Amino acid sequence: MMNTIRAAYVIGRRDFTAIIFSKAFLFFLIGPLFPLLVGGAAGALGGEVAKDIARPVVGIAMNAEDGAALLKAREVMADELGERRFPEMKMLPPSQDDAEALLKNTKNGLAAVFEGSLDKPLLVGTESAVESWKGEMALLAAYAKNGEALKLGPIDTQTVQQSAGNKKQQQLLTGQAAQVLVFMLTMLLAGMVMSNMVEEKSNKIIEVIAAAVPMDSVFIGKLFAMLAMAFIGIIVWAGVGFGLVMLAGSALPSLPVPAVGWPMFIGLSIIYFAMAYLVLGSLFIGIGAQAATVREVQTLSMPITMVQLINFFFAMYTVTKINTPVETFAAIFPFSSPFAMVARAAQDATLWHHAVAIIGQGLFALLIIRIGVWLFRRNVMKSGSGGRVKESGRRKLFGLVPMGRN
After folding, report:
1. What one-character-per-residue DSSP string does 38-73 give?
2. C-beta of residue 11 within 8 angstroms of C-beta of residue 218
3. DSSP class of residue 382?
């Protein structure tokens, strides 16, 4: 057992050092900045485009008196309830065309036509337009007809910094954000360890390593080296994020404290990420042991990726159903448990749930690691070297004999 752990440490140190001091690791660290920059630019551009898109216009085909009353009603109600709650409206000049003809005329650019009278109005348009605006148009017609009788009276208001409902909603968003972050990191790193395995197989490096150390050690060393590299990345990203928050100061909205508190929430998020990675990484490295080319890796890994994506969506679905049967199942099911439990930590202060979940996830991760090791041992080297060669390689690797002697 000690030899296996010692060999795993050697393999892990080798892989960790090779990754940390490579140029690719720098791109790995700055990689997450690009989606943030692209997303921010796309959001700003989308907002500008949305402002330029014309809102739906409803044409008013009524007599001048009713039309003027309707436009006045819209002005008053928009001030009270908000401009975006009502469609744009314009008076149409007298015409012999019916409503359908007015809608088909591209020069008008109308989404619907409001005709008839205030006593008996008629909204003409497509099914979606009618369903979208019939309530608002009925409210405006009633206000225009009754005038002062429907005038909204003033009310006194008082604001508070936070309410239970608002805090619950914000904690839910915090849990969802943690779910997405844990899932993205897990998929990224599990894919990297699989690619690393395929590369070493194609270069025959893995055969040299396997001749020197037990296959269990190779598997475990590679798995935990990538996990250690992930923690380095998390520390760097967290430091950058903290620096940006400090620079922004009061410009950023205050985040609600998760139900378990920020220190515990961050710690649990890291633990659940590690559990999710160990399970998925073990499966992926087992696949990498069976694949000889990148194409085979993509073919073999696609089903597991899709299944894990379904598990993630299932956990996201249950984020608003804390302590219900479906959410409890998501918290127990090993593949969705890390994502479901990190969302629960944001909304539920009970800690013993997490202790049970972490123990269960750890045992399941050990089981998956054992299965992955078996697949690894069975498929990495189809034709193994003799015991004498392997023993010699192990003794050289650990410095038990001079490297020049057998």
Report:
1. HHHHHHHHHHHHHHHSPPPEEEEES-HHHHHHHHHH
2. yes
3. S
pLDDT tens by residue, 148-172: 555 666 666 666 565 555 677 788 8
What are the backbone angles phi and psi of residue 59, rounded to the nearest 5°? -85, 135
Dihedral over Cα of 288, 293, 298, 303: its sign: negative
- For the chain, residues with pLDDT lower than 70 are 32, 35-36, 39-40, 43-54, 147-166, 248-255, 288-289, 291-292, 294, 376, 379-406
Q: Is 91 left (phi over 0), alpha (psi -120 to 50) or beta?
A: beta
Cα(143)–Cα(292) distance, integer angstroms: 74
Residues 34-70: pLDDT tens digits? 766 776 677 666 666 555 555 788 899 999 899 888 9
Q: Residue 67, Cα to own-chain centre: how many angstroms?
A: 49
- Tokens coding 399: 């410095």
176 Cβ contact list (under 8 Å, min separation 6): 316, 319, 343
Per DSSP, what are the bridge partners of residue 58?
89, 112
Q: Rounded to whole angstroms, how far apart are CA atoms 340 and 138?
A: 45
Q: How far is CA 150 from CA 135, 136, 212, in A?
A: 16, 14, 87
399 torsion bin: left (phi>0), alpha (psi -120 to 50), beta (else): left
Angle separating helix axes 325-332 and 294-317, nearest 10 degrees: 150
CB-based contacts of 198: which residues, under 8 Å, 6+ apart? 288, 291, 292, 293, 294, 297
